[in-house]
């Protein structure tokens, strides 16, 4: 499956588009292949559940889940200093923006609950913090061999 520039509006799920999951500031081709798009769709299924639960319990109506980074081509991943074996390279990971540490903990708790209720495992759920004090969750789910790895990086 070869994607074209007009596929940016392709819906991967109700609230997430291909463009949103592939956005980057790096001036490089960041177009996923068909398998990577399928992985992004699976990941967006989890993100939809997170969005619904967040809005049911903590949100103020219809708050979006904001993605800092989703799919990364090898060139983009290298440019941003990503790990050479990153789940982002296969379309299996997203970095989810959190307004503060409390939201990061609540998102994490909801994702763990989703895993327990659906009996599906994720690969990685890591709360991370930049040197500037910004928080995000690195969340990954693979087609198989998920490790249910959790961590908090400061």
Written as H for each helix and E for each strand, in order along the chain, the element string is HHEHEHEEE
**What structural class do helix, strand and pairing data support?**
alpha+beta
| SS strand fraction | 15-25%
Q: What oligomeric state best describes the polypeptide chains here? A: single chain
Main β-sheet, spatial strand arrangement: 1-2-4-3-5
Output the number of helix runs.
4
Can you summarize the main beta sheet? 5 strands, mixed
Distance between the termini: 39 Å
Contiguous low-pLDDT stretches (5 residues minimum) are: none
| Gyration radius over CA | 15 Å
Number of strands: 5
Helix content: 25-40%
Mean pLDDT: 94
Shape: globular
Walk me through this protein's architecture.
With 154 residues, the chain is of the alpha+beta class. It has helices spanning 18-22, 34-57, 74-79, 101-118, and strands at residues 67-69, 93-98, 124-129, 135-140, 149-152. Helix 2 packs across helix 4 (101-118). It is globular and about 40 Å long.
Q: What topology emerges from the helices and strands here?
A:
Layout: H1 18-22, H2 34-57, E1 67-69, H3 74-79, E2 93-98, H4 101-118, E3 124-129, E4 135-140, E5 149-152
Parallel strand pairs: 3-5
Antiparallel strand pairs: 1-2, 2-4, 3-4
What is the compact description of this entry?
This protein has 154 residues and is an alpha+beta fold. The chain is built from four helices and five strands; from the N terminus they run ααβαβαβββ. A five-stranded mixed beta sheet has the order 1-2-4-3-5.
